[in-house]
Specification:
Structural class: alpha/beta
Protein name: CoA-transferase subunit beta
Pfam families: CoA_trans (PF01144)
EC number: 2.8.3.12
CATH architecture: 3-Layer(aba) Sandwich
Family: Belongs to the 3-oxoacid CoA-transferase subunit B family.
Keywords: Transferase
Number of helices: 7
Helix content: 10-25%
Strand order of the largest sheet: 4-3-2-1-5-10-12-13-14-15
Radius of gyration: 19 Å
CATH superfamily: Glutaconate Coenzyme A-transferase
Shape: globular
Distance between the termini: 39 Å
Strand content: 15-25%
Length: 278
């Protein structure tokens, strides 16, 4: 057992029995990132930012992170009330001009291959909505807009969605407005239009979902410990594809939980936006 900088003993690793759903989601997302990946975080993306930081401290030390669209691989990132503020990138290897450089990088299919995003609505085929709820001309709710999600959804990027409130109003049969292309109507429509990439995973506070290969419809991949398949189906606004067996989501390790709480996000910004499962 190795020691910490403060002289206390580091925790032995192994499955944790004391973790929260936000920490579980951070660990699931962190596992999506590979060493050498290039990733970009969005606005109010506390869970993805924690996942990026966790991956860099564990299995992916050479993951390249464009923090807040401005700082490349920051050495001492600090979470604040926004994931687009200078404390996140103030000590970076280099800096990117968002207006003149970043989007050239985004448009290059070789760069920034993975994008982790949230959305107000995600439908059965992975299309996302961050624009309006209801009619576009007379919306019930006007949302922040597409930002970079529209670009990422139309390029050959690997999209991973995270959802803090798995409910029928968030996971819907069809989005009210398509801010970002997923698999469109499914059945190969995205590929027929010449679009590469696409959504890969949807990590929620209840489950992990992916997409069935032929129909390109969302498929239930695992349920979190303590959550049943029936609870997930009741909280989903469409009928997902069900495999013969639905696995349980892997729990965080003791070391991962310790890093998240003590080093990565001691202030608990990752808990913003969560509701307790029914």
């Amino acid at each position: 057992m190795s020691g910490r900088a403060d002289g206390s003993a580091a925790p032995a690793d192994g499955p944790a029995d004391d973790y929260t759903v936000d920490e579980l989601m951070v660990c699931v997302l962190a596992a999506c990132f590979q060493d050498g990946d290039q990733v970009l975080n969005g606005l109010s993306s506390f869970i993805p930012v924690c996942a990026i930081k966790l991956a860099r401290r564990t299995h992916a030390p050479d993951l390249v992170w464009i923090a807040g669209g401005s700082g490349v691989s920051p050495r001492s990132p600090r979470l604040t009330a926004s994931t687009f503020e200078w404390p996140l990138w103030r000590d970076s290897v280099m800096y990117v001009d968002v207006a003149t450089e970043l989007w050239d990088w985004v448009a290059d299919e070789r760069l920034l291959r993975t994008f982790c995003a949230g959305a107000a609505q995600i439908d059965a085929h992975g299309n996302a909505n961050n624009s309006v709820i209801g009619s576009f001309d007379r919306p019930r709710v006007r949302l922040p807009g597409t930002a970079g999600l529209g670009d990422m959804g139309s390029l050959s990027k690997r999209i991973v969605y995270w959802v803090a409130d798995h409910s029928p109003r968030t996971l819907v049969e069809r989005v009210d407005f398509r801010s970002a292309a997923g698999y469109l109507g499914g059945g190969g429509e995205r590929a027929r239009l010449g679009l590469g990439g696409g959504p890969e995973l949807v990590v929620t506070n209840l489950a992990v979902l992916d997409f069935a290969p032929v129909s390109e419809r969302m498929r239930l991949r695992s349920v979190h410990p303590g959550v049943t398949v029936e609870q997930v189906l009741a909280a989903t606004g469409f009928e997902p594809v069900l495999p013969a067996e639905v696995a349980a989501t892997a729990v965080p390790t003791v070391r991962q939980v310790d890093l998240i709480r003590r080093v990565i996000d001691p202030e608990g910004y990752r808990r913003r936006g969560f509701r307790s499962p029914a």
